[in-house]
Design goal:
- With about 130 residues, the chain is an all-beta fold.
- Strands 2, 4, 5, 6, 9, 10 and 11 form a 7-stranded mixed sheet that branches. Strands 1-3-8-7 form a 4-stranded antiparallel sheet, with no helix packed on it.
- The protein has strands spanning about 1-5, 10-15, 20-25, 30-40, 45-50, 60, 70-75, 80-85, 90-100, 115, 120-125.
- The chain is built from no helices and 11 strands.
- Strand 5 (about 45-50) and strand 6 form a beta hairpin.
- The protein starts with a strand and ends with a strand.
């Protein structure tokens, strides 16, 4: 098992930026794909961005393309999501997740991620 703890959420005005961070502990972090998902009230959990174990493959959901950047530091067991040009529709609880597969590639499906953080709230005001 791996434990994930998110930080960095908060309230920001539209057009602003936030940086989310996820710190992992437990099993080997560097061999697993990591991803960020988000969930707004009344909506399904949505893939935001993912990064494979090496950091060389990155994927973004349509809502994140051109505005968000994912990165990881395997030495520090962290994965970050830099969010810019934020919009009110980005308001949601953001979750960090770890894929069960070792040395796999990024998957956008919620079900393949077996470890989740508690989530951090991001609120974008208009």
């Amino acid at each position: 098992q791996v434990q994930l703890v998110e930080s960095g959420g908060g309230l920001v005005q539209a057009g602003g930026s936030l940086r989310l961070s996820c710190t992992a502990s437990g099993r080997t972090f560097s061999t697993h794909t990591m991803a960020w998902f988000r969930q707004a009230p009344g909506k399904e959990r949505e893939f935001v961005s993912g990064i494979n174990w090496s950091g060389f493959s990155k994927y973004y959901g349509d809502s994140a393309k051109g505005r968000f950047t994912i990165s990881r530091d395997n030495a520090k067991n962290t994965v970050d999501l830099q969010m810019s040009m934020l919009k009110p529709e980005d308001t949601a609880v953001y979750y960090c997740a770890a894929d069960a597969e070792v040395y796999g590639e990024v998957n956008t499906t919620v079900q393949v991620y077996e470890n989740w953080g508690q989530g951090t709230q991001v609120t974008v005001s208009s």
